[in-house]
Design brief:
The complex is a heterodimer of chains A (301) and B (167).
Chain A lengths: L3 H27 L4 H41 L4 H16 L2 H18 L4 E10 L7 E3 L12 E3 L5 E8 L4 E5 L6 E5 L5 E6 L6 E5 L11 E4 L11 E5 L10 E8 L8 E6 L29
Antiparallel strand pairs in A: 1-2, 1-12, 2-5, 3-4, 3-12, 4-5, 6-7, 6-9, 7-8, 8-11, 9-10, 10-11
Helix pairs in contact in A: 2-3
Chain B lengths: L1 H17 L17 H10 L4 H19 L5 H16 L7 H25 L10 H28 L8
Helix pairs in contact in B: 1-2, 1-3, 1-6, 2-3, 2-4, 2-5, 2-6, 3-4, 4-5, 5-6
Classes of the chains: A alpha+beta (301), B mainly alpha (167).
């Protein structure tokens, strides 16, 4: 049994710390993450950044080994073709060195330069993220690298991952499209505009189309369309997994998965908008679904 | 004094591991990561005096809030309350490694539910997400397993050369 004095002092300390926590939450909500809270966040991330780099270098082989084990277990349940592909990936993972990964990333970046000639591209590695309740993650590029809030973030095949929501000097925070509250304007293969919203899970998105003209079949691709000035049209966003019929001019379905495999994400590319293009009107041309002129038609991961 | 310093150092290491090893692209079985900071908070809190235990929980929570860019104070409040629960129950379950892990399981469940409820109240929408139930069920389970690894480490670090035991 604890002494009475110790118990009482602990309760007082609990009250004080709980009060501080409530004040921090209230202040953070009121300031929308700007001002004081933004300053201490940037400070903490700047201090922890080098330590996280070192920890990442130590931890990466552990993660690779864990991935390999997890995949070996799941391979038994897959068909021969997928098993072959998985084994190839596992052997590549086992043999890959950091330089090889970086080399691949640079090659992908070169391909993206062709895909987005009017954008500045910044390759970045995922640095850290919160727990299972917070799908946002931090990348190792920040304001010093020209990253700005609102920029689109894509994978090495040009599929949309999310958007920059917070920038410090050396790091940035990405709000992925799968996070609750994230909304992306998209268009179907048939040209119907709609919106996709994150559901807080890596394998489900919600698609809403209010003036639907055609049913959506399995594997229909949804691409960005008139989202904002920072986001090019035609980025692969999601794929339909179950046929979605039109119901009174509307399609509302959760049978949509993101194009990007978030469980394997390690590197990302930030699409920057040159300053002279920031205020120009959005390109409102509906992307060509035949793939003949749309530079992103073959994009995706 | 040494005990407090070592505990704070342990929580810093836990934060570092949580934000790297268990981050996106890291080890997340079934797309859910264990909460190492919560485990260290519970295990350390049961070896510290009240104030130090609460401070360890608060510090770990604030650091995660800062590095994850989520609502500042969210995890700080949760982990402080978890540390308090650990302090209040330490005299009842001081039997060994297994009972210590069971305490981690129960307190982690309470902590994760608390995290989800507080997050929802402050606009984080954690309880309405489709994965909420899976996270609430899996995180305590992962933490239970992690406790078998964390307890001896924290025991050795906090108690020096004394023989480490359960909580």
């Amino acid at each position: 049994m604890l002494p009475y004095g110790s118990s009482r002092r602990g309760t007082v300390t609990l009250g004080v710390l709980a009060l501080i926590s409530f004040l921090l939450m209230t202040f953070d909500i009121r300031s929308s993450g700007e001002g004081f809270t933004q300053t201490i966040r940037s400070g903490a991330q700047t201090i922890f950044n080098p330590f996280q780099h070192v920890a990442q270098a130590v931890i990466d082989p552990v993660v690779d080994a864990f991935d390999a084990l997890a995949n070996l277990a799941s391979l038994r349940e897959e068909n021969d073709r997928l098993r072959g592909e998985r084994e190839e990936l596992l052997s590549r993972l086992a043999e890959a060195e950091a330089a090889l990964v970086e080399n691949d990333q640079l090659r992908a970046l070169l391909a993206l330069y062709d895909q987005f000639p009017e954008y500045t591209l910044t390759a970045a590695a995922i640095l850290s993220s919160g727990d299972s309740f917070d799908l946002r993650f931090t990348i190792n590029r920040g304001a010093n690298d020209g990253i700005v809030v609102g920029s689109a973030v894509v994978d090495d095949a040009g599929a949309l991952i999310g958007f920059i929501v917070d920038v410090s000097e050396t790091t940035s925070t990405v709000d992925p499209i799968i996070a609750s509250g994230t909304v992306v304007s998209v268009v179907t293969d048939g040209g119907d505009p709609g919106i996709i919203s994150g559901q807080g899970t890596e394998d489900e998105l919600r698609l809403e189309i209010y003036d639907a003209t055609a049913d959506l079949s399995v594997d229909s691709v949804l691409r960005t369309f008139r989202h904002d000035n920072n986001t090019p049209n035609g980025l692969n966003v999601a794929i339909v997994t179950v046929p979605a019929p039109v119901n009174v001019s509307k399609i509302d379905t959760n049978s949509v998965v993101p194009f990007v495999d978030f469980t394997r994400l390690q590197f990302v590319t930030v699409l920057g908008v040159p300053s002279d293009l920031v205020d120009e009107p959005t390109d409102t041309t509906i992307p060509d679904t035949t793939g003949s002129t749309d530079s992103t038609a073959d994009g995706g991961s | 004094m040494r005990t407090r310093s070592v505990s704070l150092l342990l929580i810093l290491v836990a934060v570092l591991v949580q934000t790297t090893l268990f981050s996106v692209g890291g080890i997340r079985p079934f797309r859910v990561a264990p909460d190492l900071v919560m485990v260290v908070t519970i295990v350390a809190a049961r070896r510290l005096d009240d104030d130090a235990a609460l401070l360890v929980g608060f510090t770990g929570g604030v650091l995660i809030d800062l590095l994850a860019s989520s609502l500042l104070g969210w995890r700080a409040l949760t982990l402080t309350l978890v540390a308090y629960m650990a302090v209040r129950t330490r005299s009842r379950f001081d039997l060994g490694l297994m009972s210590g892990a069971l305490v981690v399981l129960v307190l982690s469940f309470a902590g994760v539910v608390l995290l989800a409820v507080v997050g929802t109240l402050f606009g984080q929408a954690t309880l309405t997400e489709p994965d909420a139930l899976r996270r609430i069920m899996l995180v305590p389970g992962y933490n239970f397993l992690l406790a078998f690894l964390v307890q001896p480490i924290v025991g050795r670090a906090v108690e020096g050369k004394q023989r480490s035991r359960g909580l």
